[in-house]
Amino acid sequence: MRLSDHILYERLKNVQLDLFPIDLDVTTLNTTITRDFMSNRYGGSSVSCFPTISEEKFRQHGYNDFMYLSMKYHPHAPQVPGAPGLFFQPGTASQRNTDDSELNENKIYRVFTRLSSGIWLKVGLYEFGTSEPLSVEEWTRKDMKTMRDIWSHKISTMAWGRGMRCSIRVRSQLGREATQEEYKEALGGDKKFLDVNPQEVSNAFLLGEEIFSVYTMRCVGYDIEFQKTIAHQFTNWAPPPRAPKKPKNATRVKKEEDDESKYGTDTVTQKRSSRIKQKTESSKYKSSKKRKVVEVEDDEEEEAESEDEV
């Protein structure tokens, strides 16, 4: 899921492309950490892009500028300390409507990039510049199809895509752009708008009805001492023990034991056999149904590709 080379160049051509100079030994510079470690030592959620740091944790260390970018969603995030990059935000601020997903353009962020599963690298202190949102012409480029499809799928299924799904559904129902009052009224309910499918999201981008914001990232600092600190701390850090999971069938097993003492072993065994048979038949049905769905999806993908070629 990457921007085409043409669009990438257009976004980064006015940003300093040279690496920000960092006077630090390579081993310490490239020391990676985990989100669990950062959450445990420095506070905040272990999954949010912009975790909220509690007052207690902030008093301990003095940092509240953390930003975590997964390359799953931000394929052009800096992957080398001091390198430039791009940050994406689909929709408007009112559509996102959550503090932990909103960029403050006037703030310098301490950025970590997820290089692979569980591996996060601190890349530096970054300022963000507003770039042009992806245009209709850019979205319609053939080399943008993969990115458009992936983001459309994510927006149609993820919790943070609810605002845009609401906008798309209300627009289709009204046959026009919703007023702010109409949009807020629809968004204020409990509906998740999961009936909005990826194709509807994709069409909204292609028609220019929804925006996809792009921000440039320029490294303006690094904080060598902080990197030395977390590199040392992580080396000596042991994850806190997790609470043991309750056995999945513990309640049912206990009930069966009680039933055996009450009704006898034969009766309970018959009930168990009947339940297993029902689950087996249900699994076969679901498996058959799933195969049919996959076949339909494959057909739809072929049709979509044909339409793009036209």
Automatic annotation (TrEMBL):
Pfam families: DUF6697
Record InterPro entries: DUF6697
Annotated Acidic residues bias: 296-310
Lineage: superkingdom: Eukaryota
Annotated ranges, domain DUF6697: 32-232
Lineage, uppermost ranks: Eukaryota, Fungi, Dikarya, Basidiomycota, Agaricomycotina
Segments of this protein annotated with the region Disordered: 236-310
Full protein name: DUF6697 domain-containing protein
Compositional bias annotation for Basic residues: 243-252
Source species of the chain: Dendrothele bispora (strain CBS 962.96)
